[in-house]
Design a protein that fits this description.
heterotrimer, A alpha+beta (787), B alpha+beta (297), C alpha+beta (160), B: alpha+beta, Uridine Diphospho-n-acetylenolpyruvylglucosamine Reductase, domain 3, 2 domains, five-stranded antiparallel sheet, 34% helix, C: 160 residues, Ubiquitin-like (UB roll), DNA polymerase, domain 1, 5 helices, 35% helix
Chain lengths: 787, 297, 160
């Protein structure tokens, strides 16, 4: 590598490492930023609504759409007859519109396109469907039994990714196992064993922007899909495959996303809009979900029933773990199977434990569709695990923080899948979080009817994705020297565009405000990006953008070197100027990046329009043995961290108030420190919300609380008075400037941190979140401490 | 499966020029016309498909509905269109009927309080209504304009069930009137929601107390409970206790237990009956303690 | 269903619009006037993404009929800046890093502006109370609260 490239590569070069302002924020505060529902389509726009199953499980005997079709203003009605293909990301297990049966309350059975939403809504009410209800499954443990009603008889015929292991003839669409060491023998050596069962209810992402998609299908079968989407390329791919089209026929355009948290990854309602558009060729059709539909008809976070058995020796060293996870994954598990897998291979939590047995089962239930949600199985799993760890610590007589210091995974350890853990700052995260919360010191309560407590929890998460998920990027210039970065990852609020602009500026050597990011993402023009999920963009797309910027830089330096008859090694780009360290000559990038330079040796020109390209795809992830879960490299890397909270419990009402929350996460390298902290703050509060308020109340498959009235999320009055966010940096070997992701991690350990604080405060544990005032009070009453 | 519509269903907006015209219209279209002011309950129910009125009659601009007046003899008259923000900020209300301002301020959010009205809250007759308890303990009455002209409706007996009141087709509430409250009274509204603030009342307790030399204990209390019965409830037995027995921590606790016994909550998606009953007891005790301490000082 | 011809002032501009009875102020702004800065998050008066100033008061525009606004004044997020100068609350939110996905932002700005207009020096508890009807899922609210505090300071010299 050349001297100058080294200079650009390793060191933190501004604006990398600086808390520069977001490049999209001004548009967002003026109302100029465009989201999918803001796009204007003119008077030809039609509006769609969806007829949905009222039954959790039923055969469709008959659909009669004739009255709907006849309603004035209705342009088309489609059903599953138009969608024979299967669709899915890791497992193709669903039709876009149901064909022979429905599997959850809300399953789409027909779609209407009409001149306005209200007409479409009226048409929906005129669609007659005759159902034959079938026995349903509402619990994953029951659903995993061999005698349970079978939700997907064709499971054995579904196309499935090679690393997913379904059990045809059952409701288990993935069973991931870890068998390492000898847990049976190890129990005999344990001084203390703790067994716990824990339930986590379904929750929903609650993006403030509901899903919206507009589709247009023209006479030549070219389709344009505008959507609030985290995954334009994946949506193109999955929808094209399901409709037996070429990916080149489908163009997905994705403007700013008003919150995704995973709900807008993969494909959910977008395919419905496309199919409906196919029935009104040439007219754009908009499908918007109501907030009520948002709660249960796209993706939800699946429920979990977890059994933990943990054992340690007299000194508190973990000897064995036997964890079984039953994921209540819902009606279709095309995405959920991978959460199961991730919950499996990370199923020990961030601990060094030699004997491990993990069974992670993805179970079909007649519940809303489980899909990717911030944390991807990690919050669900850590919720119970980190409480069990606390219990084990208490049982063996160790302080819970000390127990974690003793047992947490460190660089060089072997994790449960056999992979060697890379260097990680988890021990430092534990220390700093404990210090910041003033661990071990209990402040007096604010009133006689209150009790205070502190709790800490740790976590880890790896980007969960196929082994060959790739990123690509282009860097191009304008005549005035400004830079356009083309990329395929989405700005969903996490700051992806800003951080990538910083990376391009640093790698190129131009000021931050010279860099633009080309948006909206458009699969016709933007370079490929697998999906905006998994906290992978800073690392993966960052690598691609950095490579593209370095490629552009190399082209510029080679061109100028020829013109100046110098070695490119002696040149650099600083603040948008090409400089020679040898002759101290310098010139601006303006114009030369488009027009090249005159040939110094006579007539002619050298160079031309500079176009940098780069891509990144990890090549080292290996498969895992289906029986043992062992393999050399299960994942690309882990982000680890710790969270600690101080709470106050009201003995008269059961209300839990989080007074202070501290997060410490190892992000490898903070490209924009302030934005990293913003992720930690937002994740903490979302985590608090899931710990204290959130749960989809499912009864016989029906969500009882699909509205903000009865699905409460944290408001400005619920956010803690004191939030502290600590950045730990142990660089990732193949991350750009050492960076790895942080988007999801900060809401992973919050539920158990609060649960552990609750135990510290009043000595009780609940079997499931949310820790509502009612549940806390009744538990305190049962324990004889309520007032 | 009934799910909320994306937008409001079709209806005709009617803006009558006078109360008489409004009453007439409502009576003539009984069952398919509804008066509205802020719309915060009306629009939600229409979108949800529960109310299917063909006509929504805007009454908030009509004579007298926007005025708020107080005089030391007659008391407080709050026009039916006065929004809750204006109500809770009004100096007359804060000075003489502070519990009304307090309760109004706990409703939902600032944005909704810009639209929601006291009259609307009362006519909505939700057992969870935050302001209804204050209206009851302050002995409010409704001024109603109907097809037969104006009349007064006392609040006791006004509530017939969740969403059901004594109003008849053609009735428009024009104002709420509150007599001058007992001199030197103290009152408190305590509410339990699922979040810190902004939620519906899972349980609501309004307690008002004042010195009364005629009472054996020297005090009288009025206690109203929300969200624990099909209609807002006065805890009569608790009130009796507090009038008869000399006040102290033990008697306050006894009164709280009596309030709990009067409560008949149900299990619903927001909370369980058992917890609600216990919270009636705890919140009543807290509210009574707070009121008594202020009276005693 | 009847159509109503209404006139009103929006962000200082006189507008005349024909609206059906059941059209909300939010729908009118977004669909008739292409003022898409104000957002639809729930259509039920719960999330606050649709907050606008109507005759000076912060309201959920999804809970107001367009026809009710006849003769009135509406200010949306597009009307906060003047002559390309951001309102102090907009600048403060930028400076505090209180914008992530941006969907709640227009409603938050209007609620904050309305708060500072009626209470120029709000205590932290009053800020939280004023913003309780603006749901945010991204930021955790801390920086939004800091921004309102900073804007209150920034407003202060102008009021002296």
């Amino acid at each position: 590598m050349s001297k100058t490239e080294t200079r650009a590569n390793g060191k933190m070069r501004p604006p990398v490492g600086q808390s520069v302002p977001r490049l999209d924020a001004r548009d967002k505060v003026t109302g100029a930023a465009q989201f999918a529902d803001d796009l204007q389509f003119g008077p030809g726009l039609l509006h769609a609504r969806i007829a949905r199953s009222p039954h959790p499980h039923a055969l469709i005997k008959r659909i009669d759409v004739s009255r709907a079709r006849a309603l004035p203003g209705v342009k088309a009605v489609v059903t599953g007859e138009q969608t024979p293909g299967y669709i899915g990301l890791y497992l193709q297990d669903r039709h876009i519109f149901c064909r022979d049966r429905v599997r959850y309350v809300g399953d789409p059975v027909a779609g209407v396109a009409a001149v306005d939403e209200e007409t479409a809504e009226k048409a929906i009410e005129l669609i007659e469907v005759e159902y034959e209800p079938l026995p349903a499954v509402f619990d994953p443990v029951a659903g995993a039994r061999p005698d349970a009603p079978l939700l997907h008889p064709d499971l054995g015929q579904y196309e499935v990714a090679s690393f997913i292991f379904p059990r045809p003839g059952t409701n288990i669409s993935n069973h991931f196992k870890i068998r390492r060491g000898d847990t049976e023998a190890a129990w005999g050596q344990c001084a203390t064993i703790v067994e716990r069962q824990y339930r986590v209810p379904h929750i929903q992402h609650v993006p403030i922007e509901p899903h919206v998609a507009v589709a247009k299908w023209d006479e030549q079968d070219r389709i344009t899909l505008w959507a609030s989407s985290q995954s334009p390329f994946a949506q193109r791919n999955l929808i094209a495959k399901a409709l037996h089209l070429s990916q080149s026929q489908l163009q997905v355009i994705a403007p700013y996303v008003g919150g995704g948290f995973g709900s807008k990854a993969g494909v959910s309602m977008e395919a419905l809009a496309v199919v409906i558009a196919g029935a009104v060729k040439g007219r754009p059709v908009k499908l918007r979900l109501t907030r009520e539909e948002e709660f249960f008809t796209t993706f939800v976070r699946q429920g979990l029933v977890a059994h933990f058995k943990l054992g340690c020796d007299r000194e508190g060293r973990l000897l064995a773990m036997e964890n079984t996870y039953y994921w209540d994954a819902g009606a279709y598990t095309e995405y959920g199977v991978n959460m199961t897998r991730a919950g499996g291979y990370s199923g020990t939590g961030p601990y060094d434990v030699p004997n491990v047995k993990v069974d992670s089962l993805c179970v079909y239930t007649n519940h809303p569709v489980g899909g990717p949600m911030r944390g991807f199985g990690m919050p669900e799993m850590h919720s119970g695990l980190e409480q069990a760890i606390d219990d084990l610590a208490h049982a063996v007589g160790l302080d819970p923080v000390q127990f974690r210091r003793l047992n947490c995974i460190r660089g060089g350890d072997t994790v449960a899948t056999g992979m060697t853990m890379h260097p990680t700052g988890l021990p430092e995260c534990i220390d700093r979080a404990a210090e910041a919360i003033n661990w071990g010191v209990k402040a007096p309560p604010s009133a006689p009817n209150k009790r205070r407590g502190k709790g800490l929890a740790i976590m880890w998460k790896a980007p969960a994705m196929p082994p060959n998920a790739g990123s690509s990027a282009r860097v191009a210039f304008n005549e005035d020297g400004t830079v356009t970065v083309a990329l395929g990852g989405q700005e969903i609020g996490q700051g992806a565009f800003t951080v990538r602009a910083q990376m391009a500026a640093a790698a190129l050597g131009v000021p931050y405000d010279w860099v633009r990011v080309a948006g909206p993402i458009d699969t016709n023009y933007s370079p490929y990006e697998w999906q905006t999920v998994a906290s992978r963009l800073t690392w993966s797309m960052g690598n691609a953008v950095k490579a593209a910027a370095l490629d552009a830089r190399r082209q510029v330096l080679e061109m100028v070197a020829r013109a100046w008859k110098e070695s490119p090694d002696d040149l650099d780009i600083v603040d948008g100027q090409v400089v020679s360290y040898k002759t101290e000559e310098s010139r601006s990038l303006k114009d030369i990046v488009i027009y090249g330079l005159p040939n110094p040796d006579g007539d002619g020109w050298i160079g031309g329009p500079v176009l940098g390209r780069g891509n990144f795809m990890p090549t080292y992830v290996t498969g895992l043995d289906p029986e043992t879960g062992q393999g050399p490299r299960a994942v690309v890397h882990y982000t680890t961290g710790a969270q600690a909270v101080e709470i106050e419990v009201d003995l008269e009402t059961g209300k839990v108030e989080v007074l202070r929350g501290v997060s410490a996460f190892d992000v490898g390298r903070a490209i924009n420190p302030d934005m990293v902290k913003a992720q930690m703050e937002g994740g903490l509060v979302q985590g608090i919300s899931t710990a204290l308020f959130e749960g989809l109340k499912l009864k016989d498959g029906r969500v009882q609380n699909p509205s903000f009235v009865d699905y409460r999320i944290a408001t400005a009055a619920d956010a803690p008075a004191h939030i502290e966010s600590i950045i730990v940096e142990v660089p990732q070997d193949d991350g750009p400037w050492g960076a790895r992701g942080i988007g999801e991690h900060s809401m992973v350990p919050t539920i158990p941190a609060i649960a552990n604080a609750l135990y510290d405060a009043v000595g009780i544990r609940l079997d499931a979140p949310p820790f509502t005032a009612e549940k806390v009070y009744l538990a305190m009453q049962a324990a004889g401490i309520a007032q | 499966m009934v799910t909320p519509h994306p937008g409001l269903p079709e209806f005709d907006y009617v803006k009558p020029a006078s109360l008489a015209e409004a009453s007439r219209f409502l009576a003539e279209h009984a069952g398919e016309a509804r008066p509205f002011s802020g719309g915060t309950d009306t629009f939600v129910r229409m979108r949800d498909g529960f109310w299917k009125d063909k006509y929504l009659v805007d009454v908030k601009h009509l004579d007298g509905l926007n005025t708020l007046t107080f005089d030391r003899a007659g008391g407080l008259t709050i026009g039916a269109a006065v929004n809750l923000n204006r109500l809770s900020a009004a100096p007359e209300v804060r000075a003489h009927y502070p519990v009304l301002a307090e309760a109004a301020h706990t409703v939902a959010s600032y944005q909704l309080r810009s639209r929601a009205t006291l009259a609307g809250n009362v006519c909505n007759a939700s057992p969870a209504g935050d302001t209804v308890g204050a209206c009851l303990v302050l002995e409010g009455e409704l001024l109603v304009h109907g097809v037969d002209g104006a009349r007064r409706e006392p609040l006791t007996g006004f509530f017939r069930g969740p969403g059901k009141t004594a109003l008849k087709p053609g009735d428009i509430v024009t104002a709420l009137h509150f007599p001058v409250p007992p001199a030197g009274h103290a009152a408190r509204y305590l509410k339990l929601g699922r979040n810190a603030i902004g939620d519906l009342a899972i349980v609501g307790v309004t307690a008002l107390g004042y010195r009364d030399p005629q009472a054996p204990s020297g005090y009288r209390f009025r206690i109203a409970l929300a969200s624990v019965a099909p209609t807002p409830l006065r805890a009569a037995q608790a009130e009796r206790l507090l009038a008869e027995k000399p006040l102290g921590e033990a008697v306050l606790r006894e009164a709280a237990e009596a309030a709990m016994a009067a409560a008949r909550p149900i299990d619903d998606v927001r909370g369980g009956a058992h917890y609600r009953r216990l919270m009636v007891r705890n919140l009543t005790r807290q509210a009574l303690t707070d009121v008594w301490q202020r009276l005693a000082s | 269903m009847s159509l109503h011809r209404i006139t009103l002032t929006i962000n200082g501009v006189h507008e005349r619009v024909d609206v059906p009875s059941n059209m909300t102020l939010l729908q009118m702004l977004r669909e008739k006037l292409a003022l898409t800065g104000t957002k639809n998050g729930c259509a039920a008066g719960e999330c606050g993404a649709c907050t606008v100033l109507w005759n000076g008061e912060a309201v959920n525009s999804c809970m107001v009929l367009a026809v009710e606004c006849d003769g009135g004044e509406v200010v949306t997020v597009e009307g906060l800046a003047h002559d390309h100068q951001l309102d102090p609350i907009q600048q403060a939110l930028l400076d505090a890093g209180g914008v992530q996905c941006g969907f709640c932002t227009p409603g938050v700005l209007i609620s904050a502006r309305a708060l500072l207009d009626r209470n120029p020096r709000p205590a932290e508890a009053e800020i939280r109370d004023a913003l309780v009807g603006n749901l945010c899922r991204c930021t955790g609210y801390q920086r939004i609260i800091e921004a309102v505090q900073a804007a209150a300071q920034a407003d202060a010299p102008a009021r002296a």
